[in-house]
Structures are given as C-alpha cells and as structure tokens.
Task: structure prediction
Amino acid sequence: MVEGAINTATSKYFESHIWAIINKYNNVTINIDNVNYIDSNGLSILRNVYLSCLMKYNIAFYIVGNGCKEIYDDFRFNKVA
Result:
C-alpha cells in the first residue's frame, strides 16, 4: 500500500523501499489507492523500476488501485504497460 505523495522529496526512499521488497520476495504489487500526488520524478522512478523488473530481471511488478490517474496516464502515454 502506497500512501500520500511520490515526489522529489520522497521518491528516492520510495525507490529503495520497492527494491528492498523485490529483493526479498522477487515480486511486488503496489496499491495506489491512497496516492494523492505524483510528480515527474516519482513517475520516472516508478516507470524505471517497472521496466527493470519486467525487461531486465523478469520479476513480476503490478500496480493496482484507483489512485493517482497520472500513473496510468504516464504508462499509457509512454507505452510502458
């Protein structure tokens, strides 16, 4: 469960936390129901982690929930998902 804002101030912590989960469980599902804001830095980190998992490491990475429409728009615009 991800909550609050993913922005310049929080994105590095967010990235390291996601990688810690991935390294421990070899997969990750994040729920964005409670994400209320994401800036371009946060989108970039989320996109890069997703693509690294998918293409480089063959690790399952899922984004679920109805929060923060910008995440879905960014992935669709950049043809990530």
